[in-house]
Amino acid sequence: MEQYDYSQYANVPLSALNNSTRVTLSRYLTPRRSVPVTSADPQADGRLPDWTGLAELLGFEYIDIQNFECKHEPVIELLKAYTTGRGNSVSKLLEAVKTLERYDVLDDMRFRNGIVRDVTEYNRRQQQEDEVQMYHHIQPLQDPQVHTTCSDLRTDHRANETRIVTTDDVDSFRSGESHQVTYDAFISYDYSDVAFVKQMIKALESDEYKLKLCIDARDLLPGSATYPVTAHLIENRCRRIIIILTPKFLESPACDFQTRFAHSLSPGSRSKKLIPILIKPCLIPAILRHITICDHTKQDLQEWFWERLAKALQAPLDLGPEDYSDEKSLSNLFCPEAPSESGSSIASGPSSASASSSASSGARSSQTKSSNLSSLNSSSGSSSTSNSTRGMKVSHC
């Protein structure tokens, strides 16, 4: 009969059956039957239509059946032992139940639905495993002339990753120009604020201001190393960096790196390299609290907002010699020069002392003194002269 055809389960192992299906089968076959099957089929004729007859049809011996009978759930133990055998499938189990003419089991909707559900789930898992195996064994569609060797890896290591990093660089390279494109400002923002960034592009890159902004999502080429490339752009190819302050910005690791790197290029903010813009109320980072913020949250100041921002970007970045502090005047503040009059007065004091000492020595030598007193006065004069020389040196310092 077609409704009891289970050939489609021939390749499904018995391990596919879940516990609920096994329990349903156990409820039907555990009660012992005393009337054997009367059938033209020699395999079924004379067998008891319970779990003992099923065990005989599945190939278990008498000693095995005795061991199963000692268990609390003999049918569960029977199915467990049959599951471990090689080649034992769901089809063989159902055919054995049909041979015992237990159509009450086969017609039970719970049992039939359990069989269908378990087999379907098994086929789904098997398909997934086959796809994984196919993925690992599939051959790449690759030209045999294209390959990766150690020399290719060394070439990649020596490649200049900052030579062509933006779409403008590609256009410049294809047009034959050798110089890299520079920008008026690099925009550091969180992607949740891209709507404001587009508004900024429309305002600052218009014909009124004609500024050129660097937006990573628009200008950076895919495949580049993010942090080295953005650091190169901020330091060498963007005159300034605009950071758009929002609560989401403060949570972004990339934005934190860009802010700290830009701040390190101008710690004192004298060249106005870093321009913060506040578009949503948030806590201002400590490294930005000494910088004037362009506040977009104040509605009454928005009419001047774009003009102030554009002028800040257009301001000269490289200051001329006259814009720097006078180092000579600063040095005089800490090491003032001594007045000339004071120096001459200090120098004249020791000189007069030396002269009077020499005159005194001559007067004593003209008198008739002892030679010991004359030599004592002479040594006293030399000491005074030496002291006066040291006094002169101190005064010039």
Please characterize this protein's 3D structure.
It is a single chain. This protein is mostly helical and 397 residues long. It has helices at residues 19-29, 51-57, 62-69, 74-83, 90-99, 103-106, 109-137, 150-158, 167-174, 194-204, 216-219, 226-237, 247-250, 253-265, 305-314, 327-334, 340-366, 371-396, and strands at residues 183-188, 213-214, 238-245, 274-278, 294-295. Helix 10 (194-204) links the parallel strand 1 (183-188) and strand 2 (213-214). The protein is built from 18 helices and 5 strands. It has a 5-stranded parallel beta sheet, with helices on both faces.
Give the termini distance in whole angstroms.
124 Å
The oligomerization state is single chain
Note the beta-strand portion: 5-15%
Strand order of the largest sheet: 2-1-3-4-5
Averaged pLDDT, please? 77
Largest sheet entry: 5 strands, parallel
| Category from helices, strands and their pairing | mainly alpha
Apparent shape: rod-shaped
The total of helices stands at: 18
Count every beta strand, where a strand is a DSSP E run of 2 or more residues: 5
Low-confidence stretches: 340-397
What helical percentage do the residues reach? 40-55%
Write the layout of secondary structure elements.
Layout (H helix, E strand, L loop, with lengths): L18 H11 L21 H7 L4 H8 L4 H10 L6 H10 L3 H4 L2 H29 L12 H9 L8 H8 L8 E6 L5 H11 L8 E2 L1 H4 L6 H12 E8 L1 H4 L2 H13 L8 E5 L15 E2 L9 H10 L12 H8 L5 H27 L4 H26 L1
Parallel strand pairs: 1-2, 1-3, 3-4, 4-5
